[in-house]
Amino acid sequence: MPAPKRKTAPQEKAKTGAAKLARLGLRTDMDLALHLPLRYEDETQVQPIQAAGFMGGHAAQVEGVVTASDIQYRPRRQLVVTIADDSGPLVMRFLNFYGNQVKQLAVGVRVRARGEVRHGFFGAEMVHPTYKVVQEGDPLPDRLTPVYPSGEGLPQAYLRKAIAGALSRVDWRDTLSPALLAELRLQAFEPSVRLLHNPPPDVSEHALLDRSHPAWLRMKFDELLAQQLSLKRAQAARRSKGAAALPRIGELSESLMKALPFTLTGAQQRVLAEIRADLHESFPMQRLLQGDVGSGKTVVAALAAAQAIDSGFQAALMAPTEILAEQHFRKIAQWMEPLGVKVAWLTGSLKKKEKLEALARTESGEAQLVIGTHALIQEGVEFSKLGLVIVDEQHRFGVGQRLALRNKGLDAQTVPHQLMMSATPIPRTLAMTYYADLEVSVIDELPPGRTPIVTRIVDQNRRDEVIGRVHAAAQEGRQAYWVCPLIEESEALQLQTATDTHATLAAELSDLNVGLVHGRMKPAEKQIVMDAFSRGEVHVLVATTVIEVGVDVPNASLMVIEHAERFGLSQLHQLRGRVGRGSAASVCLLLYQSPLGPVAKQRLMTMRETTDGFEIARRDLEIRGPGEFLGARQSGQAMLRFADLETDQWLVEKARDVAQKLLHDDPATVEAHLARWLGGREEFLKV
């Protein structure tokens, strides 16, 4: 048997290059064609060295002959090369270099170099310029040179060559008809892509960089259209699946409504009617329930669960933390158990015997409502007749986790109805773009009797005054939270820690009971402290962000957030929402360490100016961009590469309308457009 042929060096090199491109998601010619430049360099002209020397701090391109080339060892090892033209010399300094560069840049070689010109000890110099060896009279490029997003070990020259090859091979057929392009006033696809890869020097560089050029508008529109088509197809696929209709609003729903110690607000009644209508259908509900902190989402979820139970099915509620899950369990069980509903509690920290008992009750159907954490989606958790899944703080779960709970339905053909809740309001544009396959309900009013929260920004140096404020509040019978960002000392961040703060406050407020909860405590220990705080026995609760959501103590009216500059806007808003739940005037003090960076300053000013969750979410989106806002890595959303949701909202609306029309009239175009833009990545958008 002959020995297998050994791969040649060029084959090995090509394979390695392909693997590096694949790591950037560049697998096909069309992937490469749509890998558009980040910026451009103007290599269309050469300046005399002397003229470039007057451009200190700016990039310039020069050409000269090497007159000296030395490796120097002081102050550190570096390659110093001098080139000169008729107008004078320029030094090129390389702090990192290879042996072959020394040979390449030998005396007498002609070099074209581009970089930022600085004034060094020996006159004009460039540190680490890009350069190439040329012959006298070699022509200059007639186009701007693209600079592409790259990865480790992928030089620009390799990317440019790979992309140029792909541009000669791709199928340029336009997925949009000439009539549609004329109606939308968009450029054709091929000239747009070609211009962005190789713009002529007379194109406005500003229009290329701020992506307002017509070629960029075409790319943004196509990307948004692909996303809208994919989401709407996911919605249609969901509607084609079966779900058990849950039409009965029976004795339990009516008794629960009567037993509630308050009347639903108009907004709660409106969203409940929307959910009830969805549950009547025999295709699965996929509804996002948004409501600001304290707007009363839990009671709406409980009434939805009651409808599922009235209709003869089970409901499950999953929350991201044990504290929040337990808060839901206590509140909902308190409403429902007196009405004869069996509520099970399922979490990772349960003792084995209790866990087995909860699993058996869930599987047999004896437990009509099951509340818990991620434990609900583990193997071995079986439901008898799961009709409704409620996911709280849905953005805190990954796509796979949300799917796992939905897949605990009756069989492969039917899935449970799904209600997702979020106290992080999602700005309209974002909801329209990333949640186009969800119906969205919004609770946009707070229950009566809630007092507005006053927010103050306080320098860390005034800590003693803040401690005095906490003491005064406790003397008046009120309680306070004191939130710290870390549990153990981190030298890098030098943050005040929860354990240290607890010790300090316990010493300085010796006549008060100061409690402590943090993420490293056992759930049972945390619960003992939380219960004592709820009963009013603990006056001040020092905590990490474990109290961010779900904690409801109406008597707590003062919130101190230490190192507030370290928190994100939505986290600050969530934490502030732990107070203002009773009738007493509530205050939130944001302690910060100066000096403040511009982003931290923006966040704290926003907190001081508004308590409106939607306005905070809008500003948060402005500060962070959609990827970080949604938690791109864990949310599974395929982030937009080209479109910007702040500036391109008008394009989102056009793309949504065109998507609707194409899905109805032209399925072939839909397939071609999705294949071009999403390839195999459509799954990202489906949860």
TrEMBL record:
Plays a critical role in recombination and DNA repair. Helps process Holliday junction intermediates to mature products by catalyzing branch migration. Has replication fork regression activity, unwinds stalled or blocked replication forks to make a HJ that can be resolved. Has a DNA unwinding activity characteristic of a DNA helicase with 3'-5' polarity. InterPro entries: ATP-dep_DNA_helicase_RecG, DEAD/DEAH_box_helicase_dom, Helicase_ATP-bd, Helicase_C-like, NA-bd_OB-fold, P-loop_NTPase, RecG/Mfd, RecG_dom3_C. GO terms for molecular function: 3'-5' DNA helicase activity; ATP binding; ATP hydrolysis activity; DNA binding. The lineage of its organism: Bacteria, Pseudomonadati, Pseudomonadota, Betaproteobacteria, Burkholderiales. It comes from Noviherbaspirillum denitrificans. Its EC number is 5.6.2.4. It holds the Pfam family RecG_wedge. Residues 476-622 form the Helicase C-terminal domain. One of its GO terms (biological process) is DNA recombination. This is ATP-dependent DNA helicase RecG. It is an enzyme of class 5 (isomerase). It comes from the Bacteria.
